[in-house]
Amino acid sequence: MGCHSQLRIAGTVNVGPKGQVVIPSEVREQMGIAPGDKLIALSVEGKKSISFITESDAQSLVDEMGARFTYYKQSLTKEKRNT
C-alpha cells in the first residue's frame, strides 16, 4: 500500500479572522497534543494541503536522521580503510 493508505478526514475547522484554527479535541487526544505544545506546519509544494507535526516528534526525526548519517559515514570510512 502507498504512504497515503492511512489518510482520512479527521474533522473540520474554521479559519478565524487572524488565520487561527482550532484542532478538534479528538485529534488532539489521539496525537497527544496539549496546550502550549509547539507544532510545525508542513506543506507539499504545488499541493493545497497542510499537515502538522509536534516539535518534539520533528526533533526525534532529526535526531534519528543524524544518527543514521553518522552510521553511514562511519561505515563508508571503514570501507575506505579496508580497500
List the helices and strands and how they pair.
Blueprint: H1 25-31, E1 39-42, E2 51-54, H2 55-82
Antiparallel strand pairs: 1-2
Short description:
This protein is mainly alpha-helical. The protein contains two helices and two strands; from the N terminus they run H-E-E-H.
Describe it:
A two-stranded antiparallel ribbon has the order 1-2. The protein has helices spanning 25-31, 55-82; strands spanning 39-42, 51-54. A hairpin with an 8-residue loop joins β1 (39-42) and β2 (51-54). The N and C termini lie far apart (40 Å). The longest helix is centred in the C-terminal third of the chain and has 28 residues, at 55-82. The model has no long low-confidence stretch (mean pLDDT 87). With 83 residues, the protein is mainly α.
**What is the element string, with H for helices and E for strands?**
HEEH
The end-to-end span amounts to: 40 Å
Gross geometry: elongated
Instruction: Give the strand order, joined by hyphens, for the main sheet.
Output: 1-2
What is the typical, i.e. mean, pLDDT? 87
Q: Give the helix level as a range of percent.
A: 40-55%
